[in-house]
């Protein structure tokens, strides 16, 4: 036996020697092979924005090409590193000829197709990093032959199928990341034999079943994330002993059940524990604070807690976690009072979210100690008492959720000191008194929600002129009175205005017509009177209008029929009169409501209103006239005859008119194409202001109101353009912010040749893109376009605000993925607007458990949900681990 093994070893070393001798002798030819393989690689590249591939030319040795490193002793390619070069194309099978390759790094490009099986010929390959590409198909099975692999990183691609069992044979693996792909099936237990594994990342797939216990025995693992899959089962009771090196432990958005093991306290290096959105029961270990390196502790949306009075006593121990930044405990069953100890939490604390529990009592005195706090979520509990003035000292607060409690007293005017606040939710409490005018000092406010309280008095004109308000302003279901201030016209960024069920009176100010991106307008249940102002015809993107239960009068304006995206119009219980328009939304009786207006007539037959009498009366008058005329004289017979002829002509013309208008209605889609074609001078080169991979952008003037717009016409032949269009519409529909490019409309139709045509119409940015300013294309421009330091700073701040908003303030976080100077546009006042969302992605997009999310009560707004772990960490950690 022993002898056999020894002779086997001798034999293998001999063979290896022969092999290496063989390859050494082949070296001279080997560099030629490498050269041709690299040329093949180059030939498959179809997009190369930085012209890297043109540097791969004969003028220098391939060993000196960008991204290539050769081994000095044998002249063979050792490293191929083309990370973040914007390259797109497939990877050539010739890659398998680079037989001395040890590191292949294509991180963050747009490579697609299957990864070639020839990778199995790279027997010396140690690190493969293809994170952030579009590779599809299965993970190439021949990779199993690359037994030297220490790092395999293929996250954020489109790999399908299951995780291959042979991964267990790559016994040198130190790190493996297959996060954010389309992998199905269970996690193979063979992975448990990778005894050197430190980094284990499978988050964001469709994996199911339980995690094999063998994996929990790899004691070297420090990074463990399986979040956002369909996994179930318990967290093993002894995990803290079998994985004592854990630093990151994340399993959010799965179906894990059972309790949180107390043994976790033994894993003393833990920094992140995130098991949000699962079915865990029990509670947190009382001395969880022993883990004093914790930065994030997130168990939101589980079934933890028992509503018991001492249910939050574990919070006391967290005072020892001096670097804690995030605590997420919302959406559980915790009861009892908020302990005073929370006021001694880490000064680093940025997020404290404990909404949607059964927590009682007051906000503890001393909360202002937490002065780094950015997000405080106490919503949906049973908290009582007044909101302390000291809340106004949390200078860094960005989002404040106190809604759905039983707070009483006045809204503290000190909230006006929170100059960074973007979202303020105070609805569904018992607040009384007036709305503090000081709220207007929150100059970054995007959302202000005060509905369902007992607020009275007028709405301060300072507050209603907070022009940063972009998402919504809702003060409905209070006892507010007085007129709607003229300053409402300053809400030029607002999407939704809700003033319903109050005692507002007076006329609707004509200035409301300045709120041109309003999508929803709810004024019902007040005492508004007078006409609908003509200026509202500017509110072309309104989708939902409710003016019911007021005292409005006059005619229903025709322009409402011209609103292309209007879906609901409620004008019931007012005093409107005259004929109902017949165009646009008025064609569809089920989209409009006009009950309780006694003086209306006409409209489509489904409305069953009396026909308008005006025409009939004039007809009767004519008949009467005839009756008088006939007896007077036969002489006037001629006149009568001509009257008759004129009359019949009129009927004919009106009939013609009607058939013409139905014809135009049928052509609505084509009209929008024609309009776009017309306003851009037939897509003339003179109006071309830019072009990119997804299409061209033209300047145009809309004939309807003379406004100047930018029209982005998508090049549908381009791979992915159609998807990009849908994505962009989707993104733009859900967001709005002063530093984001505003979309006016989207067009999806046929052109005159019957081809598909898609375009987005944006506000025109008169100062062009930041790219034009930074890199002017000719000297003339260079002279005129200079950016002062202050301007540059302002632009940077604008872009940062936009990104901050996209990442943290949207319902789902949005990653733009394509921030560059050419996508930063400057308006007349040099305010920067971020545009081009064609590549943007929603961070929560792929979650298989989104439905569970949407079950959550409307109260649960302050929740942080689950925070996706970074994929980039893989490469950082791997580099770090392997170098050290
Ligand atoms: C390969 O190496 C030989 C000898 O070192 C050299 O003469 C030749 O130019 C190299 N060929 C390429 C393509 O680099
Ligand atoms: C790669 O190697 C294969 C097999 O050895 C050979 O047929 C092919 O021509 C090589 N490709 C290049 C580009 O040299
Ligand atoms: C060839 O590559 C060199 C640098 O590697 C570069 O300076 C040169 O411009 C390239 N030639 C062409 C024709 O692109
Ligand atoms: C690469 O370039 C350096 C100088 O830039 C030169 O010394 C070296 O010989 C070149 N290597 C090869 C393999 O051509
Ligand atoms: C370079 O090649 C030689 C001979 O094949 C090998 O022994 C050495 O380890 C290689 N160097 C590196 C840094 O890979
Ligand atoms: C790969 O290239 C990128 C960009 O050129 C560079 O930042 C990175 O450090 C390189 N990585 C390695 C491992 O050489
Ligand atoms: C894949 O590996 C098998 C042996 O494991 C080999 O026969 C086959 O040629 C390899 N395929 C490629 C494309 O290299
Ligand atoms: C990912 O792969 C699936 C199935 O292979 C395919 O239907 C889908 O279009 C791909 N997604 C992307 C973004 O390429
Ligand atoms: C993996 O290793 C097992 C046991 O050593 C062996 O039976 C199996 O064939 C290997 N699989 C591959 C794909 O190399
Ligand atoms: C905090 O740590 C100290 C020692 O560093 C310890 O005495 C104390 O009991 C800890 N407090 C909690 C609540 O765990």
From TrEMBL:
EC code(s) of this entry: 2.7.11.1
Entries under SUPFAM superfamilies matching the protein: L domain-like (SSF52058), Protein kinase-like (PK-like) (SSF56112)
Chain positions recorded as ATP binding sites: 712
Key words of the record: ATP-binding, Cell membrane, Glycoprotein, Kinase, Leucine-rich repeat, Membrane, Nucleotide-binding, Repeat, Serine/threonine-protein kinase, Signal, Transferase, Transmembrane, Transmembrane helix
Entry annotated with the keyword Nucleotide-binding: yes
S-adenosyl-L-methionine recorded as keyword: no
Subcellular localization(s) per the UniProt record: Cell membrane
PROSITE patterns from the UniProt entry: PROTEIN_KINASE_ATP, PROTEIN_KINASE_DOM, PROTEIN_KINASE_ST
Protein kinase domain ranges (all copies): 683-884
The name this protein goes by in its record: non-specific serine/threonine protein kinase
Species of the source: Lupinus albus
Source taxonomy: Eukaryota, Viridiplantae, Streptophyta, Embryophyta, Tracheophyta
């Amino acid at each position: 036996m022993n002898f056999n093994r020894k002779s086997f070893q001798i034999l293998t070393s001999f063979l290896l020697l022969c092999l290496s001798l063989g390859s050494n002798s082949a070296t001279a030819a080997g560099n030629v092979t490498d050269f041709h393989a690299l040329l093949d690689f180059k030939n498959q590249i179809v997009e190369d924005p930085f012209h890297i591939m043109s540097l791969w030319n004969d003028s220098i040795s391939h060993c000196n090409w960008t991204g290539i490193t050769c081994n000095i002793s044998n002249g063979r390619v050792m490293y191929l590193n083309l990370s973040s070069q914007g390259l797109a194309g497939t990877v050539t099978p010739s890659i398998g000829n680079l037989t001395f390759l040890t590191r292949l790094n294509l991180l963050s490009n747009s490579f697609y197709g299957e990864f070639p099986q020839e990778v199995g010929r790279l027997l010396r390959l140690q690190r493969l990093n293809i994170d952030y590409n579009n590779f599809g198909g299965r993970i190439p099975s021949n990779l199993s032959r690359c037994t030297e692999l220490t790092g395999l990183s293929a996250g954020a691609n489109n790999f399908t199928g299951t995780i291959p069992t042979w991964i267990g044979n790559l016994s040198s693996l130190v790190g493996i990341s297959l996060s954010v792909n389309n992998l199905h099936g269970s996690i193979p237990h063979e992975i448990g034999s990778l005894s050197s594994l430190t980094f284990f990342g499978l988050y964001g797939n469709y994996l199911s079943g339980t995690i094999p216990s063998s994996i929990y025995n790899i004691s070297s693992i420090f990074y463990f994330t399986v979040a956002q899959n369909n996994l179930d089962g318990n967290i093993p009771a002894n995990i803290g002993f079998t994985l004592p090196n854990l630093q990151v432990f994340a399993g959010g958005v799965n179906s894990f059940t059972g309790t949180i093991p107390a043994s976790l306290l033994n894993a003393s290096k833990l920094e992140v524990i995130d098991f949000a959105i699962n079915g865990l029961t029990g509670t947190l270990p009382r001395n969880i604070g022993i883990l004093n390196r914790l930065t994030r502790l997130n168990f939101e949306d589980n079934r933890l807690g028992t509503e018991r009075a001492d249910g939050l006593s574990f919070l006391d121990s967290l005072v020892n976690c001096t670097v804690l930044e995030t605590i997420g405990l919302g959406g559980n069953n915790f009861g009892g009072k908020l302990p005073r100890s929370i006021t001694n939490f880490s000064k680093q604390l940025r997020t404290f979210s404990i909404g949607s529990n059964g927590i009682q009592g007051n906000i503890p005195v001393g909360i202002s100690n937490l002065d780094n706090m950015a997000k405080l979520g106490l919503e949906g509990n049973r908290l009582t008492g007044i909101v302390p003035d000291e809340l106004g000292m949390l200078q860094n607060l960005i989002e404040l959720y106190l809604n759905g409690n039983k707070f009483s007293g006045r809204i503290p005017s000190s909230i006006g000191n929170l100059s960074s606040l973007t979202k303020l939710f105070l609805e569904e409490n018992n607040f009384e008194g007036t709305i503090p005018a000081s709220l207007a000092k929150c100059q970054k406010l995007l959302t202000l929600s005060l509905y369902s309280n007992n607020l009275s008095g007028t709405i301060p004109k300072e507050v209603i002129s907070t022009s940063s308000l972009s998402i919504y302003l809702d003060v409905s279901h209070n006892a507010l009175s007085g007129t709607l201030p003229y300053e409402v016209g300053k809400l030029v960024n607002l999407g939704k205005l809700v003033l319903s069920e109050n005692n507002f009176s007076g006329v609707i100010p004509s200035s409301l017509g300045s709120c041109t991106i309003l999508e929803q307008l709810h004024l019902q249940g007040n005492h508004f009177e007078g006409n609908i102002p003509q200026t509202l015809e500017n509110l072309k993107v309104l989708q939902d209008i409710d003016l019911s239960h007021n005292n409005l009068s006059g005619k229903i304006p025709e322009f409402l029929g011209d609103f292309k995206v209007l879906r609901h119009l409620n004008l019931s219980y007012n005093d409107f009169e005259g004929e109902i328009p017949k165009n646009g939304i008025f064609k569809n009786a089920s989209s409009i409501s006009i009950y309780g207006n006694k003086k209306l007539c006409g409209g489509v037959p489904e409305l069953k209103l009396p026909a308008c009498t005006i025409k009939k009366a004039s007809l009767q008058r004519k008949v009467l006239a005839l009756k008088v005329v006939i007896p007077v004289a036969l002489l006037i017979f001629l006149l009568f005859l001509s009257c008759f002829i004129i009359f019949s002509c009129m009927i004919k013309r009106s009939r013609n008119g009607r058939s013409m208008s139905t014809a135009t209605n049928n052509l609505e889609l084509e009209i929008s194409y024609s309009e776009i074609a017309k306003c851009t001078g037939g897509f003339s080169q003179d109006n071309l202001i830019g072009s990119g991979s997804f299409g061209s952008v033209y300047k145009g003037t809309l004939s309807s109101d003379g406004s100047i717009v930018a029209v982005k016409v998508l090049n549908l032949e381009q791979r992915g353009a159609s998807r990009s269009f849908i994505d962009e519409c989707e993104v733009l529909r859900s967001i709005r912010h002063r530093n984001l490019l505003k979309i006016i409309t989207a067009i999806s139709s046929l052109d005159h040749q019957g081809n598909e045509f898609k375009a987005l119409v944006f506000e025109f940015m008169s100062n062009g893109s930041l790219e034009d300013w930074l890199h002017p294309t000719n000297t003339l421009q260079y002279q005129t376009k200079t950016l002062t330091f202050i301007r540059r700073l302002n632009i940077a701040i604008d872009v940062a605000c936009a990104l901050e908003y996209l990442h943290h303030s949207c319902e789902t976080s949005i990653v733009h993925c394509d921030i560059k100077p050419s996508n930063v546009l400057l308006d007349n006042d040099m305010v920067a607007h971020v545009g081009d969302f064609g590549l943007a992605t929603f961070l929560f997009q792929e979650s298989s458990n989104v439905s569970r999310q949407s079950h959550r009560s409307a109260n649960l707004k302050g929740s942080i949900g689950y925070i996706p772990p970074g994929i980039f960490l893989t490469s950082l950690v791997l580099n770090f681990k392997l170098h050290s």
